[in-house]
TrEMBL record:
Gene3D superfamilies: MetI-like (1.10.3720.10). The chain crosses the membrane at residues 12-39, 75-94, 106-126, 155-177, 198-220, 260-281. Residues 69-278 form the ABC transmembrane type-1 domain. GO terms for cellular component: plasma membrane. The lineage of its organism: Bacteria, Bacillati, Bacillota, Clostridia, Eubacteriales. This is Carbohydrate ABC transporter membrane protein 1, CUT1 family. It holds the Pfam family BPD_transp_1. It is found in: Cell membrane. PROSITE patterns: ABC_TM1.
Amino acid sequence: MRTGKLKTNNGYLAWLFLGPSLLGFSLFYLLPFVTGFYYSLVDNPLNGTFVGLHNYGALLKNSSFLSALANTAKFTLLCVPLNLILSLGVALLLNQKLQGRNLFRTIMITPLVVPVASVVLVWQAFFDLNGVLNSLIHALGYPPVDWMKTNWSRIVVLVIYLWKNIGYSVILFLAGLQSIPAEYYEAARIDGASRRQEFFRITLVYLTPTTFFVFVISIINSFKLFRETYLISGDYPHNGIYMLQHYMNNMFMALDYQKLTSAAFIMAAFIVAVVLLLFIVERKITNMIN
């Protein structure tokens, strides 16, 4: 009897502790999710008529949305592999016994603690028409470039993304590298393995879980660069960097909740599909290793 009563009391206590979190989750996540999905299926948020997938069909015929979708896909396909390759390369260097490597590790973390507003001011001062970079170009005898109003804006956004995300990815890769037993490399050298063979058959194989995690985080972060891009270039930037987040922000400003929520759910479905695909690939690779 005492055991049963104790379990019941523990159950009540557990719900007591979970209650605030569940309430917050329901209020700030679950309820907006359900409401947003409802808005995407009606023609008006106030006493609207159910139209099914009509809003999604209309959105897929919208040229602005398709342009934003294409730009977002191109940016993700470019920035994520670059972030993986560069961060892994830097992690491999910092994993060696180099002088001052602790200082470089600290520098890698710096972008994570710098406020967004400060970052934007720095990038604006650097890439503005009258900024630092154009001053250097002018000093060399070349005409200034309006970086954010030309195709160069894509490179600017890419640089900002890499600057912001490489440090975190490097730390993750360093943790993964240091978890690989040194005995594996020693045994490989005894067997006559080259550095290239060690990298592809030991390092990359045992970095699979870390690489998968960094890949997923990089994809998610590629959709989170809106603040910096928006603060630098405004509501309607150059066509090359007009992303899904810009489109949704403009629909919000226009109070067009149908297009806003439909675009949001399409983007969410895309992210979920990519992550699920990565989970399947990672599981197959892990089974092959084991």
